[in-house]
Amino acid sequence: MTQERFTGSFTQQEPIPEAGIEAALAVLRHGRLHRYNTAPGEVAETALLEEEFAALTGAKYCLAVASGGYALGCALRAVGVKPSDPVLTNAFTLAPVPGAIASVGAQPIFVDVTEDLVLDFADLAAKAKATGARVLMLSHMRGHLCDMEALVALCDDLGVQIIEDCAHTMGAAWKGVASGRQGVVGCYSMQTYKHVNAGEGGFLISDDAEVMARAVILSGSYMLYGAHRAAPPKEVFERVKFDTPNVSGRMDNLRAAILRPQLALLPERVARWEALYRALEAGLRGIPGLRLVERPEEETFVGSSFQFLLPGWSAARVGAFLSRTLARGVELKWFGADQPVAFTSRYDHWRYAAAQSLPQTDRILAGLVDMRVPLTFSVEDCAQIARIIRAEALAVGQGPEPEAAELPVIQ
Fold it and tell me: Residues with Cβ < 8 Å from 344, sequence gap 6 or more?
């Protein structure tokens, strides 16, 4: 009997909306791509985008920048992180997060994660006290939100400020509060695989006037901060402008024009992603040896990726499973590999951070499988993907121990 094979692409995104294409063409035709280059009476596309994203999230202030990674580094500088300072962050995250910490000369301090893929609060408290860290760069990795009310209360007790990395949670919420609104700064990404697509791009949001004034100047405003509309009052800039360096990372008007129409589509995209996620979840539930990550009722999540655990599986068994699913067109990634593969790496691969022991996280990542879910998939596609994963998980998980094999490379 011929096995079914999935033929879709895990990296193909939806096209840019026609309104975004037309807006981009208008910017190209007039040539004023730099955010501070405007005609008399014109408001830059970037300034309008910032206003619209601030309104969408309910934040007082918003800054658009060149990338999500830049947003993280800018936020660290804006809250006052200095070289050699310890900064807490999830052990389960992607390279731009500890990379941002290292980029300002600070020291990443990795915090254990739980089997629900969120921060371990007991380990967070212990490491905050042991290191004296005063900043947590919280990565909502792969869209999983922890109990944000409990985290904020804990960090208040510890004297720790929260910077939220919302690269995977634009459009998500905890008990109705938008992701990015619980910390002093929320940072977002508009890279191609995120929830709005400009190829690259980032946002910072905050209600803290001085932090945002510093971020605007850091981003390369020179003394043109008055052109920002979703920004603090002039007098706040006057207090910080001479002691805040220019670390240019501005967004341009072309990318802003592409993004503005996409913001209005975000709620509809979130609903579509949930339907895809639930189809995968239903198709994978009840497989022996495979554990799903259950989503809490308090969480509004964005299902742009899907994770499951293979607890206790050997590296050889996981490798055989990944190879077999890939042969049937299903591209899965594994966080337990000894070496980084394409975008997938883990805390002990980043040698610019001091070596740290996290056996709990090691055990969880050893069985963690991850998959992109682009909106070019249909519910029927996700049902087929789940059937293929189910069949191979049963075949490999219940069969004899396979010989070690080289892992397939997934971009």
Answer: 333, 334, 335, 337, 370, 410
CATH 3.40.640.10 domain position(s) in the chain: 18-263
| Long-range Cβ contact pairs of 54-57 (< 8 A, separation 24 or more) | 54/205, 54/230, 56/178, 56/263, 56/266, 57/178, 57/180, 57/181, 57/186, 57/205
Q: Please tell me whether residue 45 adopts helix, strand or coil conformation.
A: helix
Statement: 18-263 belongs to CATH 3.40.50.720 = no
Contact 334, 402 (CB under 8 A): no
Q: What is the pLDDT of residue 341?
A: 87
Q: Does the domain at residues 266-397 carry the CATH identifier 3.90.1150.10?
A: yes
| CA–CA dist 182, 1 (Å, integer) | 53
Q: How many residues can be counted in the chain?
A: 411
Q: Are strands 61-65 and 202-206 parallel, antiparallel or unpaired?
A: antiparallel
Q: How far apart are CA 163 and CA 76, in angstroms?
A: 8
Q: Cα(92)–Cα(119) distance, rounded to whole angstroms?
A: 9
C-alpha span between 20 and 232 (Å, rounded): 28
Q: What share of the chain is helix, strand, coil (3-state, %, to 5)?
A: 40, 15, 45
Place of tokens 């589509």: 265
For residue 14, report the phi and psi dihedrals to the nearest 5 degrees: -70, 155
Nearest Cα residue to 365 out of 141, 88, 102, 193: 141
pLDDT, tens only, 17-31: 999 999 999 999 999
How many alpha carbons fall within 13 Å on the CB side of residue 39? Answer: 5
Give pLDDT, residue 74: 98
Portions of the chain given CATH number 3.90.1150.10: 266-397
Low-confidence ranges of the chain (pLDDT < 50): none
Single out the residue of 306, 238, 315, 256 nearest to residue 277, CA to CA. 306
How crowded is residue 411: how many other Cβ atoms within 10 Å of its Cβ? 10
Q: Give the model confidence (pLDDT) of 295-304 as tens digits.
A: 999 999 999 9
Q: How far apart are CA 136 and CA 110, in angstroms?
A: 10
Tokens 């890279």, residue located: 191
pLDDT on residue 1 = 60
Chain mean pLDDT for the chain: 96
Q: What does the radius of gyration of the chain's CA atoms come to, in whole angstroms?
A: 22
